[in-house]
Design a protein that fits this description.
The protein is mainly alpha-helical and 206 residues long. Helices cover 81% and strands 0% of the residues. α2 packs antiparallel against α5.
C-alpha cells in the first residue's frame, strides 16, 4: 500500500500522485484545446469549437485545482464555486452562439470534424483514466473530474455529429451536438456549485 492510500479522504487532494495527474491533464487539455479551436474554425464546426472551449476550460480549471492544493476547505470550496460559475458561463455562451448559428447555416467539414473528434476522444480517454483514482473528494476534486468527464462525452457527441453531417450534408447535426454539449456544461455547473455550497457550509461549521 502506498503512502497516498494511507491518507484520509479529506486529504486526498494533496497527494503527489494527484498533483502529477493534474499537471498531465492541464498539458493535454490546453495543448489540444488550442489545436482543436483552430480546427473548429477551419472546419466551420460549432461542435468542434464548443469542444475546444471545453478543453481550454478544463485545462484552466484543472490548473486552478492545482493552485488550490494545500488550501483550507473554505478556500477550496470557493475555488470550486468559481469553476462551477465559469462552466455555466461557457455553457450559456455556447448555447447562445449555437442559437445564432441556426440563423446563419454553414455545413461544416465532416472529415475534419471526425478526425479531430477522434483524436480528442483518445486524449480525453487518457485524461479520464488518469483521474479515475482521484474522482472522489471535496468539491474542488469533483469539479476537475466533471470537467474531464464532460470532455470525453463531448468528443463522442462530435464524432456522432460528424457522421450525421456527412450523411445529411447539413449543419443541423453539428448544431444539435453543440447544444447538447452546452446542456452538459450547465448540468455539471449546477452540480459543482451545489457541492461547493455544501463544502462552504461544512467549513463554516468547523
Amino acid at each position: 500500500m502506498s503512502d497516498d492510500d494511507n491518507l484520509p479522504k479529506d486529504l486526498s487532494h494533496i497527494t503527489p500522485a494527484y498533483r502529477r495527474a493534474l499537471w498531465i491533464v492541464v498539458l493535454l487539455n490546453v495543448g489540444y484545446g488550442l489545436a482543436e479551436m483552430i480546427g473548429g474554425f477551419l472546419a466551420d464546426s460549432q461542435a468542434l469549437k464548443a469542444d475546444a472551449l471545453d478543453f481550454l476550460g478544463d485545462g484552466s480549471i484543472t490548473f486552478l485545482g492545482l493552485l488550490a492544493i494545500g488550501w483550507g476547505l473554505k478556500l477550496r470550496a470557493r475555488s470550486a464555486l468559481i469553476q462551477g460559475i465559469f462552466l455555466g458561463a461557457m455553457g450559456i455562451a455556447i448555447l447562445a452562439n449555437t442559437i445564432y448559428r441556426t440563423q446563419v447555416l454553414h455545413t461544416p467539414e465532416a472529415g475534419v470534424m471526425g478526425i479531430l473528434g477522434f483524436i480528442a476522444l483518445l486524449i480525453n480517454a487518457i485524461a479520464v483514466i488518469i483521474l479515475i483514482p482521484h474522482r472522489k473528494g471535496d468539491a474542488n476534486v469533483r469539479a476537475v473530474w466533471l470537467f474531464s468527464r464532460n470532455d470525453a462525452l463531448g468528443n463522442i457527441l462530435v464524432l456522432i455529429a460528424a457522421g450525421f453531417v456527412f450523411w445529411t450534408d447539413t449543419s443541423w447535426p453539428d448544431l444539435i451536438a453543440a447544444g447538447l454539449i452546452a446542456s452538459l456544461f450547465l448540468q455539471s455547473s449546477w452540480s459543482i456549485i451545489k457541492d461547493a455550497r455544501n463544502d462552504l457550509k461544512k467549513s463554516e461549521s468547523l
